[in-house]
Amino acid sequence: MSPLSPTQVNELLHEAAPNSTIFLIGAGGCGMSGLGHLLLDLGFSVAGSDLAVSEEIHQIRSRGGEIHIGHDPQQVVAARPLLAVYSSAIKADNPELLAAQEMRVPILRRAVLLAALMLRQRGVCVAGMHGKTTTTALLAFALERLGAGPSYAVGSLVPQLERHARFSQAKQPYFVAEADESDGTLREFRPEHAIVLNVDADHLDYFSDLEAVCREFQNFAEHTGRLVVFCADEPRLAELFARRPGSVSYGFSPLAQYQIGAFAREGNGKVGSRFDVWRGGEKLGDFSIGLLGEKNASNAAAAIALLHQFGYRPADIATAVAPFRGAARRQEELFSDARFRLFDDYAHHPREVAATLQAFKGLGSRRMLVAFQPHRYTRTQHLLKEFATCFAGADRLWLTEVYAASEPEIPGITGAFLAETVGRTGQAVEFIKNVGDLRHAVRDALQPGDLVLFLGAGDITRAAHGLAADLREQIATDKEQFFAALSSVLSSASVSRQNEPLAKRTTLRVGGPADFYVEPASEIEVAAVVRVCAGKNVPFVILGRGSNLLIKDGGIRGVVISMTHPHFSRVEVIGERLHCGAGAKLKTVAVEARRQGLTGLEFLEGIPGSVGGALRMNAGAMGSWTFDVVEAVRFMDYAGLVQERRASEVYVEYRGCPLFKTHIALGAVFKGQPAAKEAIEQRMQTFSQKRWDTQPAASSAGCIFKNPTAISAGKLIDELGLKGTRVGGAVVSGVHGNFIVNDGHATAQDVLTLIEIVKQRAKTLRGIDLETEVEILGEGHKCLH
């Protein structure tokens, strides 16, 4: 039976009976499982097999696919498939493959079926030796956020996409997919558009040399119907494509049509990059992504250039790409605490390794520890010279045995030989033969401040996840010991809990848990808690009533000290002064002042917070500010020493009081003025009515942004047309543009993404840098460390 072309396969699938079965041999790989998702979306039944259970197999089974463990010819016979599809890892003597041949079932390589499915829609292929997965995932993610409803097939799991492959039912959607060059199947694709990221002397087990690689990509471009977006920083690509009609270039090169200008990493140890893009001497816009390094900025620029060619506005593109944090095993952070950060990355080519180390250099770590697993004997042999020098940025380096990836061994090409070669350059290196032992070697070497990278395309990821699990287990033990120490300094009148949910303790109603939560019953106990934290080097934060606060979905590491115990919630009136604890509600203060016939504090009634929070933020409303009516403050330093100070001696600023960034508010004395209760009541009603008329009733954190000099934040957001903009359950209020409300289903990440959308739009369209007024605390991921 002659091999079928993608066109013939497409015709066969169109003519097939509903619910026909496609059998996938090697169904657990990302590429093959992606085909499974596409076929299920199209109404086909999916059966198949692999040697081990994986997350990808779990996903296919959850959707009704029948995936067996182990290869057995009877599984093909029972399935009676329309087609049998196999991955590159499947050998010619595979029993299921032989069974399909005997049954005269058409047999396809994975790429042929993918190319056939792409013919149904507006195909966009991402090709190149490095960065395909990240770029494909980013392009699919951005098109989804731009409302295009794309189809896509990504060669890895993508946490920010529901699954890594989807066949969309949208009208004339784009179909974005990785096109793999490693096995000669690049020629099967006939996309409408293509991105070509780079070429390199790789896969030399298949290609004779670099020239053969270049011919493969040139042939691919000839089969692309319209745009070919290529990297101008790659001389061979410029040589191949610069004169091709319909070619578009991007990169750092001044010759690029879409040129990357200023590039910078995000600050404060954040994993992310910022850069601008210029076109024809004019600035297209400012962009950011949640990945490190110039290579990732370059890959993002490829997607940005193509999206701009599709007709999307630069501001919308910037908003779409900003939250992207990568595919699995691409700068994937597995563990982070105050001592260590641990990342898992797929880099396996010397060029990728060097770029990854360069990207992470300067992230704020004291040392960079690198564990690497060579991938394929042929790659290790052909690129031995490049491997010898690509680890130069590592402070400690471990190498393990070569991951064969179904290749036969090459005598003399081993992990030990590679380690010896690296060592001859002067680089200190240790060889650990068993990849399972890497986690223990790295763990023994860890020191506070270290950043750890596990690199490779094989099973080294298991060692990375194993070390992350070890570190979490150690933290669990440390937590129990710390909680015992914390509980020992608290009386029975206090509250102390572990893993306390915090969403219910904020007015926005989002956020993850606190490792430890305490409500001390006295100043003495607050001091004791602070001293325990200092002695154990555990961070703490102070929580009032939870307004003006956004806690991330990962919650807060360390201790949350809540000042809401009744001891700190008292309001005592002495003459014209109100002596208030830090936990007293501002509404309670205002109502008590009215009851006592004291005016001047009516504006506090509408601020949904506590006295402590109002002092910290110099909260204001209706033209008045907290420190306008505060006479004295009482506070504690982080050593537990209590002090008092007159308000006139405390420096305050717009929306802030620096003193309470480093001290704990215990209480304050408010000063009112005698007045008729009826007049006070009338004023409070007026303020209340104005608030209900101008502010949303739904859950919110109050104003999200500080007001810029030239225009109020609310008016700016209104003029930008952003009212009603939604991400998940978070919505820019239609009542007041400077409020983001929770419709009842929002996550903190929804809110954070929406904040970035507003900031990007304000910067791109009006040149205004919006600064958040809401305080953002906690960890961005959902796992507890």
Could you give the order of strands across the largest sheet? 8-7-9-6-10-11-12-13-14-15
| Overall structural domain count | 5
The portion of residues assigned to helices is 25-40%
Spatial extent as radius of gyration: 30 Å
Envelope shape: elongated
Please report the distance between the alpha carbons of the first and last residues.
56 Å
Please provide a written account of the structure.
- The protein is an alpha/beta fold.
- It has 5 domains: 6-109, Rossmann fold (3-Layer(aba) Sandwich); 121-321, UDP-N-acetylmuramoyl-L-alanine:D-glutamate ligase (3-Layer(aba) Sandwich); 332-472, Protein-Tyrosine Phosphatase, Chain A (Alpha-Beta Complex); 569-686, Uridine Diphospho-n-acetylenolpyruvylglucosamine Reductase, domain 3 (2-Layer Sandwich); 697-777, UDP-N-acetylenolpyruvoylglucosamine reductase, C-terminal domain (Uridine Diphospho-n-acetylenolpyruvylglucosamine Reductase, domain 1).
- It is 32% helix and 23% strand.
- It has 23 helices and 40 strands.
- The strands form 9 sheets. A 10-stranded mixed β-sheet has the order 8-7-9-6-10-11-12-13-14-15, with helices on both faces.
- Strand 32 and strand 33 (642-646) form a beta hairpin.
- Helix 4 crosses helix 5 (95-102).
- It is elongated and about 95 Å long.
Compact summary:
The protein is 32% helix and 23% strand.
Set down the secondary structure blueprint.
Layout: H1 6-15, E1 21-25, H2 30-41, E2 45-50, H3 55-62, E3 66-69, H4 73-79, E4 83-86, H5 95-102, E5 107-109, H6 110-118, E6 122-127, H7 132-145, E7 151-153, E8 165-166, E9 174-178, E10 193-196, H8 210-222, E11 228-231, H9 235-241, E12 247-251, E13 258-265, E14 273-279, E15 282-289, H10 294-309, H11 314-321, E16 332-336, E17 341-345, H12 350-360, E18 367-372, H13 377-382, H14 384-389, E19 396-399, H15 415-423, E20 430-431, H16 438-445, E21 450-455, H17 460-487, E22 495-501, E23 513-519, H18 523-536, E24 540-543, E25 549-551, E26 556-562, E27 571-574, E28 577-581, H19 586-595, E29 598-599, H20 611-617, E30 620-621, E31 624-625, E32 630-636, E33 642-646, E34 664-671, E35 673-674, H21 677-694, E36 699-703, H22 713-719, E37 726-727, E38 730-732, E39 739-742, H23 748-766, E40 775-777
Parallel strand pairs: 1-2, 1-4, 2-3, 4-5, 6-9, 6-10, 7-9, 10-11, 11-12, 12-13, 17-21, 18-19, 18-21, 19-20, 23-26, 24-26, 25-40
Antiparallel strand pairs: 7-8, 13-14, 14-15, 16-17, 22-23, 27-28, 28-34, 29-35, 30-31, 32-33, 32-34, 36-39, 37-38, 38-39
